[in-house]
Every structure is written in structure tokens, then in C-alpha cells.
Amino acid sequence: MSAVADILMHAYAMTPADCLAWRQRLDARDLRLLRDGGKVAGTLVSIRKGQWFGGRSVPVVGVGGVGVSPLHRGQGTATRLMTRLVQEARESGAALSILYPATQPLYRRAGYEQAGARYETRVQMSALEMGERTLSLRAIESRDEAAIAACYTSVARFRQGWLDRSEFSWGRVRNPRSEPVHGYLVEGSAGVEGYVYLARRPLKDLKQELALTDIVATTPAAARRLLRFLGDHHSLGTEVVWYGGPDDPFLLLLREQSYSVKVYMHWMVRVLDVVSALEARGWTPGLSGSLHLEVTDELFPENQGRFVLEVADGVGRVKRGGEGRLRLDIRQLGPLYTGFQSAASLRSVGLVEADDASVQAAMALFSGPQPSLRDMF
Q1: CATH of the domain at 13
Q2: Is the same domain home to 251 and 284?
Q3: Is the pLDDT of residue 129 over 80?
């Protein structure tokens, strides 16, 4: 663990206090080490969770904390780490692996590709005085955690790409590494209808901004009450910042466009198992169709070859064979799968080979809202 802390301090410029907080949050069973000559040369964290696609939770392995000792850089250490990680992740039964890249070439060599984005939303606090106080609001207590998790799930399952959170992910919401977080919930006749977790970040001249680690509302009244609560900080506050997608419904409640939305970072996906990935996700109810794929994958022979995807009644079924009319590498299957890039867009830059009918079929089957992520990991 001492060697891991040293690697992370070099890789991410983390302070000793940050490393200690990171270690306290980590389940040691999720830590992976690569040794060279008896010394720890590299490390990463493998985190089991789910990710929502089409209203169904797809089993994924998230990758974080990838670091290589300064003495072992430029020797293929990170590539060896990632190759072994995706092999282990596939063996565990996960359909996908996801990560935020510090550098893309490394992860592309392991079969990952951009497949969605995490967006930063900043709202001027003065725009949040919305006059809604009908629902009660109180501080969150430990006994509320199950109800809050259910509240989150009821929203996240309809947000393409959001996490089906593990305890690790909830820990990042409730207890981030470097700042105290306070939680508040909104209650109505049916119980918890919304909540927010926030940190107050000091600025100059006694001002502050509110940094939200999560905000969710399941009713219009709860959404307005939460925004009103955030607006009540305007005497000393400047902005409220949170993360999610480009289509955040909270912004539709604002009178003016007193906000900015920008890409914070693109995340990447690696399809570990073609068949299980396509069959695990949900599909648009009432939509039916078929797609003949031909996939190449240098790492997993099981993913190589031709597959036929048949979609009906919100369910996908995959069988071997077919005509292979849409040809792509495993990397390009990632952004197609999440809906981040259409088959037409991928074909336009030479990353997919397909006839027009197959492109149109793929665009219909994989259509939906832009995939996004709220959580870091």
C-alpha cells in the first residue's frame, strides 16, 4: 500500500492526505498490482457496478486509479495492466468495462473507445429564486439511505449511461475525498421525492459556490423545491455546479438561460462480450429489427466473427452467423452500443463499413438520448 500511495502521488500529484483518504475508501479486494522484479510497478482499481442502457442495468467493471511507477514508465507496464484487467473483467461475467482516460492511446490499445461524456453544468445562483416552498426539506440522516438510493434508481434507469451505483459510488457522493458534504431531502405524501448532496466551496471576498455531488427529483414540486433551496444561498453564493448530461431537465425550469453546460470529460467503453452486452441492455419497446454484424477483436477470439442481432419487444437476442453487412472493430462497437455515435457518423470517418440499409437499421436500433455519466470513479 505504501508503494501504491507513492505511485499515485507521482501519477496524479496527490498529497499524502489525499492518498490516505483514497485508501480509506478503497476495498483492498478491488486493488490490482503489477510487480516487476518483486517491486510494485503499476496499479489500478477494478470496481464492479452496473450501467443503465435502455432501462436495464448492464454489468460493468469500472477502472480507476491507473498508475505506473516513474521508474517503469515507457516499458509497456500500463498496457500489460490493462490487458490483464479486461481479461479478468470478462471472466467475471461483466459485459462492459468503463473508464475516464488520462490518455487515450493506452486504452484504445486495450479495445476502449469514447462512448459518452460527463457534462459540467453551472447555474447563476440568482436565477434559482423560484418561490417554491410547499414541500418540506430536512437534513439527510443515515436511516434515509435506502429511500435515497431508490429515488436515484427511479431516475437513473431512464438516463442512458448513468451508473447503477455500488457502495463505492455512493461513497463518492456522500464522502468525497477533499471536502465535507451535506445532504438534504425533500419529502411529500409518498415519501422522498428528491434530494441533494452539496459542498460549499469558499471563494474570495467571503463568497462561495455550491458544488453538488448529486441532485435528483422525481416530481416537479421536488425539483422546484430543491432549486429554491439552492437559490436561498444567493446572498453569499455565486454559482451552483453539478454534473450529468446535456439534457438536464432541471434547466427547463429556469426563466432565462443563466447557465453554461460544457463537456467535462469523455468516458470510454470496452465491450468485453459481444453477445452478453447486446442481450443485457434494454431496447425501445415496440421497436423491432435485425442487424448483421461482423466484429474484429484482437484480444478475445470469442468476439470475432459474424453475429445477428434480433430486437423485438424491448429484448435483444444474438446468434452466430449471418451476412456480416456492418463491419467494425470492437472499439467502434462501444460508441455504437451506447448511442454516442451513429453508424452513419462512424462510417463517414471510415470506422464502419456497411451498406445504407444496415446503417439505417443500426441508427434505428441504437437511437436514444445522448449517453452521459454523473459519477467519477
Answers
A1: 3.40.630.30
A2: no
A3: no
221 and 346 co-located in one domain: no
Task: Write the pLDDT tens digit of every residue in 5-27.
Answer: 999 999 999 888 888 888 888 88
With cut-offs at 50, 70 and 90, classify the pLDDT of residue 190: confident
Q: Compute CA distances 92 → 7, 37, 107, 207, 366, whole Å.
A: 27, 28, 20, 48, 26
Whole-number average pLDDT of the chain = 95
Name 357's Cβ contacts closer than 8 Å, sequence gap at least 6. Answer: 325
Q: Is residue 166 part of a domain?
A: yes
For residue 374, is it within any domain?
A: no
Domain count of the chain?
A: 3
State how beta strands 191-202 and 237-244 pair. Answer: unpaired
Contacts of residues 67-70 at CB distance under 8 Å and 24 or more positions apart, as own/partner, are 67/4, 67/7, 67/8, 67/10, 67/11, 67/12, 67/42, 67/43, 68/7, 68/11, 68/41, 68/42, 69/3, 69/6, 69/7, 69/10, 69/39, 69/40, 69/41, 69/42, 70/10
Q: Identify the domain containing residue 37 by its residue range.
A: 2-110
Kindly report, residue by residue over 322-355, the tens digit of the pLDDT. Answer: 999 999 999 999 999 999 999 999 999 999 999 9
